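Reopening this one. Same input as before:
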Amino acid sequence: MLLLSFAVVLLAAVLVSALANRTILSTAALFLVAGFVLGEGTTGVLHLRADSPIVAQLAELALFAVLFTDGMRVGWADLRSAWRLPGRALGWGLPLTLLVTAVLAHYVAGLDWAEALLIGAILAPTDPVFAAALVGNDKVPARLRHLLNVESGVNDGLALPFVVVLLAVAAGSDDLHLGELATELAVGLAIGVLVPLLAIALERTRFFAASAAYAPLNGVAIGLLVLALGKATHGNLFLAAFAAGITVATFGPRERVAFEHFGENVAELLKLAALLVFGALISPGFLGEISWTGWVFAVLAIVVARPLALWVSFLRSGLSLREQAAAMWFGPKGFASVVYGLLVLEAGIGAVDEVFHLVALTIVISILAHSSTDVVVARAFDETAEVPAWHGVLRRIRRGRRTAVVPGQRTAVVATGADSGRTSRVDGADGADDSVTTDPQAKAK
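Same output, byte for byte:
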């Protein structure tokens, strides 16, 4: 039933995708709403609960694919050449977003500081998938698109250590397992770097070569091998995925190009499936269990926490006011927050239900708000959109009047590119109508 539901919603998303690219309609929101409608607490078509194994597994796999493809978009050369703005967002914006969110969770939602800081760490990462019209629009300044891409790709992994440590604190554990955490991160990083390097080196020897048909599968093989080794060695999967993507982009540009479109499609399928499953966990009863202070917190976590943190981070950064406002608004909560929220369910902390409810509500509001406003904000960077529609109408009317031949007036052809064939009249000093032309051939005639 889950497969059937996903296939039907996917077909609907494909059929409306062209419309979604031009309007506030969002395919991501479509899957979330479909999951909500089909969930056990609504119509009961899908029998999924937060502790169902497929929920955690699909979310984990989707996040792995997202980080792997994100890493390929930001190779090491890209990170070094344009690190100033992403560095501000990560070095200042990420911890400030965590702290502001924690303050809101403590004073508005009434959580203890341990749970409040945990929610701050879970909701700090961002995902540009729900702002695709902004990130993928060439009219949006390149530095803004680069900033959002790099920030969202890196902050998932940076937030993970905080989530793990704060989970232990919230659970009341005396041992934070810092040594174990460091080992997991180190193993994940080693796998993410060494596996792609070995695969690329083998392909470049005179004994091996990938055919054109199989070239895109090279990236798939690398990703699956990193995932399997990470699972077997208990290394950090998400750091391994991002490191593998960066390694391929840095040392295998040919492999990067071959895998790019295919990999993005695979990641998109997994993300949409995870959204459908996540939406199925949300129901009217689930939302009704959240107090009004929880709703206030969720809204403030979106409209206050990141905007305030990014405003401080980008002081005297050189970003225009429009660019800074777009970066402050587009901090959508995505798959990293979903996965980290599911980790809370497995940890068994005291306030597990309240924390998960607040995290889920914030993610839902963020997906709906950010995925439906990306087109609107992207159009603000389109200079042609700033010209009112009536301006073009009046211009055509004036042009039509100029082309009309009036007795006693002399007309001339003005041939200038797209306006070739337009006539213009110039009044002479004696009140007569003198004609002018900018077309050398017409002037010669």
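So the earlier flakiness isn't reproducible anymore. For the record, The chain has a mean pLDDT of 78.
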